[in-house]
Amino acid sequence: MKAGVITRVDGKPGEVYYPYSVVDIPQPTPGPDELLIKIHGAALNHRDLFIRQHLYPGTTWNVPLLADGVGTVVGVGSQELEGWKGKKVLIPPGKGWASDPSGPEESYAVLGGTKHWPNGTLQEYATFSAAEVEECPVHLSTPEAAALPLCGTTAYRAVFNKGQIKAGQNVLITGIGGGVALAALQFACAAGATVFVTSSSAEKIRSAKELGASAGVNYKSPEWEKDLQKMLPKSRPYLDLVVDGAGGDIVQRSVSLLKKGGIIVSYGMTLGPLVPFTMTAVLKNIELRGTTMGSRKEFHDMVSFVRLKQIRPVISTTTRGFESVDELFEIMRSGKQFGKLVVLLGNDQAKL
Ligand SMILES: NC(=O)c1ccc[n+]([C@@H]2O[C@H](COP(=O)([O-])OP(=O)(O)OC[C@H]3O[C@@H](n4cnc5c(N)ncnc54)[C@H](OP(=O)(O)O)[C@@H]3O)[C@@H](O)[C@H]2O)c1
Molecular function (GO) terms listed (predicted)? Predict the structure, then answer.
């Protein structure tokens, strides 16, 4: 069967860009507690770009790439699992973390392209524990379902469990073109919060408003925080929460906008591996909270929330076939996406 992998070439982390290639690998056989899943669609996350640049922990070669995906159960490892056959399921994006809100109980691994868990969604068939998959909400198309697991779980944990968002509060979500940021926007709006965004593009801010954002500013503007200050409602002229995936000077920029004791949740550092914390933020009792993807429980809770609120992940581009995946990486490198980059796999015409 086919799989999409990176192959090894010489180069230093951050300078190298490992070539993508499509290879033949043996079809896996499910263990006694596992399901054999035919993958219909898979989606990129920024981590996959970091993997190609050797900037992600555990990066390795010749392991199926990608962590987001959806498929149908076509085989089972034991009689008790027969009932799963034919079900459309969301692939678990990580393992080793059951439910502890503070972090993984065991050594945690994210799916796709690493030596920590040599499995990924960019292959024709894959095996996963039946206890780890989630039944796919019926309102989702195949690309929407493929786009959901990793970025949905990350956004859910960031907004609710770390950000403690409540109806009526003001939240800023930065870099709204990103997959996690858009999921966070949808979740915060569904929870009744008032959402502000930043982006490099006026068009992306317009699209975010169509999804429920109140207003937005361009983060390339030298004093975007002052522009945003003017947009906050008179009745609540401060932010309760910032959800950020870029890093950089987010603390300095947002400190004047946040209420006393306000929270900044950082789920990534696209700009580099440091976020300076300032004395002004200390004196204002601001909390900077790091967050990662999420537990098995948060994956489940997120899918239930998406089902309840009938949320549909935002798709930027959908391609077909393993050979098209490099195209999606190029879009991510250029930063032109607004939402998720999805590839449909297999010869069957999976429902769009
Ligand atoms: N900790 C975890 O478990 C976890 C899970 C998922 C993601 N992440 C991390 O989160 C980050 C985003 O991931 P993703 O998959 O959502 O990425 P993505 O889809 O590639 O989106 C990245 C977005 O970053 C925004 N951006 C770039 N420069 C920015 C700046 N100076 N200020 C604000 N925003 C900026 C851009 O927004 P515009 O297009 O609007 O300009 C871009 O769309 C990455 O660092 C990733 O590794 C971490």
Answer: oxidoreductase activity
Q: Please tell me if the CB atom of residue 339 comes closer than 6 angstroms to any atom of ligand 1.
A: no
Distance 167 CA to ligand 1 centre (A): 25
- Residue 68: strand pairing partners: 43
Q: Quick check: is 128 in a domain?
A: yes
Q: Using CA positions, which residue lies closest to atom 26 of ligand 1? A: 175
Is the CB of 271 inside a 6 Å radius of any atom of ligand 1? yes
At 307, which amino acid appears?
A: R
Average pLDDT over residues 51-56: 97
Same domain, 6 and 26: yes
Q: Is residue 234 part of a domain?
A: yes
Distance CA 335, CA 332 (A): 5
Q: Let me know whether 129 and 206 are in one domain.
A: no
Look at residue 346 in the predicted model and tell me its pLDDT: 75
Range of the domain at 46: 2-148+313-344
Considering the domain architecture, whether residues 62 and 184 belong to the same structural domain is answered as no
Q: What DSSP letter does each residue of 199-248 carry, written as one string?
A: ES-HHHHHHHHHTT--EEEETTSTTHHHHHHHHS-TTS-SEEEEEESS-T
Distance 32 CA to ligand 1 centre (A): 38
Q: Would residue 295 count as lying in a domain?
A: no
Give the tens place of pLDDT for each residue, 294-341: 999 999 999 999 999 999 999 999 999 999 999 999 999 999 999 999
Q: How far is Cα 321 from Cα 251, in angstroms, rounded to an integer?
A: 42
- 193 and 95 both lie in a single domain: no
Contact 48, 66 (CB under 8 A): yes
69 lies in the same domain as 134: yes
Q: What are phi and psi of 95, to 5 degrees?
A: -145, 155
Nearest residue to 55 (alpha-carbon basis) of 319, 270, 221: 270
C-alpha 337 – ligand 1 centre gap (Å): 11
Q: Is 164 left (phi over 0), alpha (psi -120 to 50) or beta?
A: left
